Predict the 3D structure of the following.
Amino acid sequence: MAEGLETEVKTNPQGDVITATEAPKVQAKENKAAKQRVVTPEHLFFEAPRTKTFITGSEAAKEAIRRANVDIAISYPITPQSETMQQVGYLYAEGYLKDYYRGEEEYGVMSAIAGASRAGVRALTATAGPGLMRGMEVITSWPGGRMPLLLLVMCRVINAPLAIQPDNVELSYLLNSGVLLFHGENQQDFFDFPLKAYMIAEKCEVTLPAAVAVDGFFVTHARGWVELPPDDIKLPPRDCYHEAVPMMDNENPPARLSRDAPIQKSNFISYQMHASWQQEIWAAQDRARPWIKKYMGGLIEVVNPGAETMIVASGSAVSQSREAVRQAGEKGDTIGLVKIRSLRPFPTQELIEACRHAKRIIVPEFNCIGWLAKEVRSALYGQTKAEIVPGPRVFGGMSMPTELILEYLYKTPNEARLTTKPLVL
Amino acid sequence: MTTATSSPRYQVLPGPEGLLPPSAAAMGVVLPQDGEGLVEGVIVPEAATYKAIAKAMLTRRNPTIFPGPLVVWGWTKHTQEKASVVLELAAEIPGVKIIPMPDYRPIYPKIDPEAVINPCHPNLTIWHNKIEACIFVGVHCHFASVTLKMVRAGTNCYTVALCAEAGHEDAMASLPHCDIEKLQRVTEALRQAKKEGLVPWALTPAGKRELAAEAEQKRKQRKAIATSAPTFAHELVAGLDENEE
C-alpha cells in the first residue's frame, strides 16, 4: 500500500483505527425537530390531544425523548437497554438531540453524563442489570452533585449465572442511592414517566437525578397501547440558572465557583458539612413529593380502596395483579391494589392510608430478595395489624402467572405450597 | 426520609439542637407557596413572615446579613440592583454586620470569621461574632440548606432565608420567591416595627455596651497587628497542598 495512503488513517494512542463518523446531516425539509414548539409541562401532560398507538416500550421511551427537549444522550449498549438507546440514536440523526455517543463502558458513561449535567444541559442515559452495577459508584455521586439528569433502567438479571432475562433485583441497589426512583408498569408509563421525571428532577428545591425503571422485555420489547401527544411539541428547556447549585461554567471565571473542591476532596470538607449534605439529599427527595403528586397523579394509584385484602406492587407485577384483581372480581371478591409509582421518595403516608382497612396484604415481586416487601413492612410497621405476606415472587426471567397471585390471595404461603400444581403438565 | 405521622408538629427553633438534628423536611415541614411564608416550621401568611423577620432582626443580638454569590458578585444588572436593595434593607437594622459568603469553596487553613462565612463551617463565624439573628440572601439553595442545618444544630442563631426560589425549611423564617419587591417589603416591615416602638438591640443599653466593647477590642487588635510581626508562620502562610489526598 502506498505510504501516502497509510498516513490518512487516524489511530488512537494504542494504535486502534478510529472509526468515528460524523452525524448524518438532516435535510431541511425533513427537519421536524427544528419546528417543534415549546409548551408548558401541563399542556404536554394533561391538555394536548393524544393518539393511541401500539408500540414497544423502547419505542414509547423514544417518543418521550422526542418531546423531552433533551440536549445530550450518552450510553453503552447492554440488553435489554440497547434497543431503546438505538431508538434515541435515530432521534439524534433526526436533529432532536444536540449530541449523542457511546461511552467506553458504564463507569465512563455515568461519569460523562454527570459532566454534561453539571454543565447545565438536559442529559439522558440508560442501562440495565450488570451495567447498572458497573456504573453504581458514579451514580451514587449524582445526588450529592445535585445533577438533575435522567437514567432509564431496563431491569434484567444481574447475578451469575449470566442471563439477560427480566428480574428487578437491581432496583434494590438504587433505593438508597439518593436518586429519585420511579417504577413504570407498562409502555404508557415508559412514555409518561421520563417526561415527568425531568420536570420533577429539575425543580430548584429538588435538583436531583431521576431514574425511571421498567422490567426489561415485558415492557421494553413487548407492544402495548400508548397514548401520545403530538410530536410537534416539546417540554421547556432546562433552566440551569434556577437550580440548587451553580453550574460548572468553564467559559466565565471564576470557574471554581462550581462545586469542585467540596464534593471531590474529602480532606477539605468538614464532617458536619458532609452529614448536612447527605441530609439535604433526602430532604430534596421529600420536596419532590408535591411535584410527583402534581405531574404523576400521586406516588401511588389505588384500585378498590377500602378492600380488606390489598395487593401492593410496582412495575410489571402491577399488570399481573390487575388481572388477578379482575379474576377475583369475577368470583365476587373485591381485592384492592396499590400501584407504587414512586419508590424514592417512598409513599409511606399514602401506603398507610391505603392499607388502613386491610387485614391481609400481599406483595408480588419480580426478584428473589423481596425488596418491595421489606419496604412495605418497614413503612407499615406499627401502623397496621394486617398480615403482610412477602410474595409471591418470581425471578431469573420467569413470568408471574395470575394463578400464583390468586393462590396467595386466598391462602397462606404454606397452604399455597401444598396445593400449587405445575402450570404445564 | 419521612418519619412517623403521629408525633407532634416539628418546630424549627433557634438551637443549639444537638450534634446532628434531622432535617426539617424529613420531619414533615413543607415549603410555602406564593403568598405564604414559613415561620418556625409553620406555613403562615406572607405578612406574618415579614413581621417575624423584622422582630428577630431588630431585637436579637448582633444581627447580621450573609449575602451569597448571587448578590455579592455583579453577574447581571438584576443582581446589582438586588444588592443595592439588600444594602437598603441592612440600613434599617441598627448595628447590623454584613459578612459575605462569596463562594462555597472550603477555606483552609482557617477562615477569618469577621470577614467571611463558609458553608463548610458556618458555626465559626456565628460563634465568633456572637450572632443571634441573621439573614441569608443570594445563596444557592443547596448550600443555604446545608448551612442552615449546621447553624440550627450548633448555635442559638435565629436564621432567616430570603430565597429567590422555593424557600428553606431549616430556616426559622423563610420567604419563597423573594424578589426585589419582597426584599423591599422586608425593609418596610423593619421601618414599621421601629415606628411601632420596637427598640432595636443595638440601641438598648446592653447592645450599646457590647458594640462599644467590640469596637474597642478591634481598635486594640489593629494596633497590635501594626506594631508586631508574626514570628512563626510555616504552613499557615504556605497553605496546604490542594492535591494531597
